[in-house]
């Protein structure tokens, strides 16, 4: 089997561990392993035939470069399109990969990946892949390289794209054959594309799994920020309103609020009552102040709104705290500091275990089995049908839009709702 792995959508800590895990588990199980640079965008662009890499040979590792070689160091710093950086070694080390997006990789190409933040193979939110014509090109590029299995690590949007690609696959192959871009033999060989999804997202917004890759690290960053803010807040007796990421999901805000000892938390799934939240929040905060608390921390999820779906922004909260409680209040938007940086231990362990399961899932896949998403439930790595997980996640957004917040919470996390 020829497996390619790609990372898509917003990056998250742990995506490199996914790539490393898929490549190494794939090699151990006798597969050929590939990476696709720049997410679905790389799949659509494929490989420029005028730009050739030397033939794959895992025995060439470190033969021609050493870390002390100044030219090599320059390539690392300035070689736009080089795959590997910062002391990692391998077959593709130091080579310009400009014009090549689908690349054969070996064991040493992913050395040093575990502790790195972001995604070293690049990611993108591809417009082209959303179009049928883009997906047709992507199918052609995969078939051209003989790849028959794909691991996609991304959030709900990326996994939805994976599901569309999988369901269109037979039609795409037929179209390529009819237009003469691939041969009948290629069409027969590639009649079935094996796809498996891993959820890489700091938002922890995917249904049917307890945790997404990158969410623990982002939560850790937020906790550290709360600690830092707490000491300055207490010194000045100030209030701070922290806006945290999570898109339409309140997981980061809720967990950070509990772990950081926040006074009030606003999340989309259980919104505060329209017209009443101001009073409710002030009452809670005042009760903390009267017993001697010198600081106030309010966490606002970026997707927060009230029960009438009117967005609640950190500035709105600040104004209420300043005007009604006369608190000296500041707003801190943590932004992308939540997303970048080194993965915590769990964002190395979880993706590694899930990557191994992803490879096993692909090896066991038959044309009759559905595409799976690899999740985790009650500390066990699981396989769930990708389509079901994507649909359930969409239903959460639908329930919120319909103001059915109880349903949104139970779809997000059935046990928590109980
Ligand atoms: O989905 C991950 C996420 O970080 C969300 O929490 C946030 O809303 C969004 O991506 C930010 O996207 P961008 O990096 O494109 O600004």
UniProtKB/TrEMBL annotation:
Its main localization is cytoplasm
The highest taxon in the source lineage is: Eukaryota
- Self-association or partners: how does it assemble? Homotetramer.
Q: Which GO terms describe its molecular function?
A: 6-phosphofructokinase activity; AMP binding; ATP binding; fructose-6-phosphate binding; identical protein binding; metal ion binding; monosaccharide binding
List its EC numbers: 2.7.1.11
Q: Which residues of the full protein are shown?
A: 1 to 418 of 805
Protein name as catalogued: ATP-dependent 6-phosphofructokinase
Q: Give the Phosphofructokinase domain ranges.
A: 2-361
Signal peptide range equals none
> What is the role of the protein in this entry?
Catalyzes the phosphorylation of D-fructose 6-phosphate to fructose 1,6-bisphosphate by ATP, the first committing step of glycolysis.
Q: Which reaction does it catalyse?
A: beta-D-fructose 6-phosphate + ATP = beta-D-fructose 1,6-bisphosphate + ADP + H(+)
Family, per entry: Belongs to the phosphofructokinase type A (PFKA) family. ATP-dependent PFK group I subfamily. Eukaryotic two domain clade "E" sub-subfamily. Belongs to the phosphofructokinase type A (PFKA) family. ATP-dependent PFK group I subfamily. Eukaryotic two domain clade 'E' sub-subfamily.
Give the species: Thelephora terrestris
Question: Which residues of this protein are catalytic?
Answer: 203
Name one cellular component (GO) term.
mitochondrion
The EC category is transferase
What positions does the entry give for ATP binding?
10, 125-126, 155-158
What are the record keywords, sorted? Allosteric enzyme, ATP-binding, Cytoplasm, Glycolysis, Kinase, Magnesium, Metal-binding, Nucleotide-binding, Transferase
Compartments reported by the entry: Cytoplasm
Any one of the GO BP annotations: fructose 1,6-bisphosphate metabolic process
Recount the known activity regulation.
Allosterically activated by ADP, AMP, or fructose 2,6-bisphosphate, and allosterically inhibited by ATP or citrate.
> Quick one: which pathway?
Carbohydrate degradation; glycolysis; D-glyceraldehyde 3-phosphate and glycerone phosphate from D-glucose: step 3/4
N-terminal catalytic PFK domain 1: annotated span: 1-418
Per UniProt, Mg(2+) binds at 156
Q: Does the record bear Acetylation in its keywords?
A: no
Which co-factors does it depend on? Answer: Mg(2+)
